[in-house]
Allantoate amidohydrolase (Jiella pelagia), 425 residues
Amino acid sequence: EARTLPSAFASSAPPDAARRVMARLDALALVSQEEGRLTRTYLSEAHRQAVDLVSRWMREAGMSVRLDDAATLIGRYDPGSGEFAGRRTLLLGSHLDTVRDAGRYDGMLGVVTAIEAVRELAQEQQELPFAIEVLAFGDEEGVRFPRTLTGSRAAAGALAPDDLSACDADGITLADALRNFGCDPDRIAEATRKREDLIGYVELHIEQGRVLEKAGRALGLVSGISGAKRARFVLKGKVGHAGTTAMDDRRDALTCAAEMILAIERRASETDGLVMTVGTLELAGAGVNVVPGAVGFSLDLRAFDDAIREREYEAVVADCEAIAARRRVSIRAEVFYEETTVPCEQALVATLKKVLAQRGEDDALSLPSMAGHDGLAMARICPIAMLFVRCRDGASHSPDEHVDLEDIAASVEALTGFVRQLGHQ
Ligand code: HGY
Ligand code: MN
Ligand code: MN
Ligand code: MN
C-alpha cells in the first residue's frame, strides 16, 4: 500500500529513498523457493535470483560487483581520487538468506539500505578517504546445511576443514552446491579478506525484539552480539508394540525427550541471562501403534556471558543423562555450532552515537543482540558494529515482520550519516 511519510518527518533522507528501499524489499520478498511464503536458502535458485536482482541495484548505485567463492555478493564503491591509492575499505551489508516462512526485513533491510546509502554518497560525489563495500552474505541463518555464517566465516578465514563436506537434507555437499551455483569451492580460501585492508564491518539490522519499540526509538546502538551454542541430542530407546508393551517395560525415546525438553525449558526460565530453544524434533519409524525407539532434537543455547553459556550447556547434558539413565534410554549430545560473544568496537560505536546525536538522540539506547549475526564471524578479521532498527512487536523469523517507512528513512539517513561522519574524522 502507498504509505506516505508524515510531513513533520525530520529526516533529511529524501522520502523516495525510503520508498525505493521498501519497493526493493517487496521485490525481494517475491524471490522465494516456496509457493506463497518467503523462504530463500543458501545456494538455492531463489538465492541466485536474489543475487541477480541485488547486483543490478548495486550497479545502479555506482558500484562494481563480484561474487566470491562462498557466494557472497560484493558491491564496491571506490570514489577513487588517486591520492588515496591503496585506501582501506569500510564494509557494510547483511545477509540475503532467510529462515522458512520468513519476514522481508531480517537481513535484506541491511543490504538494501547499505546500497541506498552508497547510491546517495555516489550521487553527491562525496570525497571519502576509504572505499565502501556492501556484502550480501548467503548463509547467515544456517537453514540448508548444518553450518551457518558460511559466507562471513569465509571472509574472515574461519571456515572449518569439514565445512565443504557438510551435506544438506538431500545429501548434497556444500562443495557441490557451491559448484552448481557457479562458485569454485577449491578457491574458497581466496574469499578471505586481509585485515590490514579493512576499517570495519557495520551492519544495520532489525532488532527482532521490543526494546526500541517500548522506548519509542527508531534506532539503537548494539553493545555486542551474543554467542550461541547449538547441539543435536540423539536418543535410542526400544521400539515396541503399542498394545503389548507394558508401561513399566518401555524404553520410550519420545517421552524421554519430552521430559528432557521440559527440563531444558525450566532451567532456562530459572537462569538469568540464559535462553534455550528446542526448535527441531525428529521421530524415526513413527507410527500410531509403535512405541518410539529413536528420537533426535536440536538445542539452541544463548547467553551473552560466555561462562554462563558453557556452564549451562554442561548442566543440560548432565540433566539429560540422568533422565536417560532412569529411563534406560541411550543419549548422544553433539555440538555442531558455537560462537563466543563479540563486543562491538568502541570507536565505531562512538561514531554511530554521534550520528544518532545529530538526529536529536544524544541519549541513544545501547542494547545487546541476543540474535546472531554475521558480525560474529567478521569480528575475527575486523572491528564490527551494528545499528538496530525498531520492528513492530519485535516480530521476526515470521511474515509478521514489519518496519515503518519512516524508520526505513531513518535507517538510510543514519547509515549515510555514519559514512560521512567516518569520512571526516
Ligand atoms: O539465530 C539467529 O540468531 C539468527 O537469526 N540467525
Ligand atoms: Mn534471522
Ligand atoms: Mn538476520
Ligand atoms: Mn532465562
Observations:
- The CA atoms of residues 265 and 276 lie 7 Å apart.
- The pocket of manganese (II) ion (ligand 4) is lined by residues 268-269, 271-272, 274-275 (CB under 6 Å).
- Residues 1-11 have pLDDT under 50 and may be disordered.
- The two ends are 41 Å apart (CA to CA).
